[in-house]
Amino acid sequence: MLSLFQNSHNPQINLEIVVENRWVDIVKEGFDFGVRLGRDVAIEMIAVQISDSLKMVLVASPDYIAENGAPKTIEELSHHRLIGMWISTQHGSELPWEFKVKKETVKFIPRPQFSINNHLRTQAVLDGLGIAWLPQMGDVQNYLDRGELVELLPKNAMVYDPFYLYYPSRQGYSNAFQLVVNTLKSI
């Protein structure tokens, strides 16, 4: 996606990307726009859907499963090596994993052997280091399709709202800003 903005058609666009796992007041913090999961934005913001729903899946490598077996229930996860996702908060915390059980959402607080706050979680799973809860999109989907990752507990996979681009409802957008908005809407 980033390559769409850095090719010869968009030389006037300079991106500053800040990834946060918290609510960001884009006006107060000086950003032109934000991207978030779900349409829950302030009333003075414009929200534009830029993705389909997001499915989170529990995955492991075939090597990990061959060596350790696969959990058959959510409770069995506590007996496996887990790869968590650290959330940047004042005190720090582990991102809970959510699953669907019948029509209820069940939260599981992982006790991971280690936590990673970016795409290296996927590489750690591919390397057979443990089980992780990852978004089924992009590279993760490709690894699943090729059999390099295996989905665990598929009946309990969680589906979330789509991603939305949000920005202030003000007049006077620059051409570069409008180009970014239109590009993200077209993906």
From TrEMBL:
MF GO annotations: DNA-binding transcription factor activity; sequence-specific DNA binding
Transmembrane segments: none
InterPro entries: LysR-type_TF_proteobact-type, LysR_subst-bd
Domain LysR substrate-binding: from-to ranges: 9-185
GO BP, one annotated term: DNA-templated transcription
Classification via PANTHER family: HTH-TYPE TRANSCRIPTIONAL REGULATOR (PTHR30537), HTH-TYPE TRANSCRIPTIONAL REGULATOR PGRR (PTHR30537:SF1)
UniProt record similarity statement: Belongs to the LysR transcriptional regulatory family.
UniProt name for this protein: Transcriptional regulator
Species annotation: Pelistega ratti
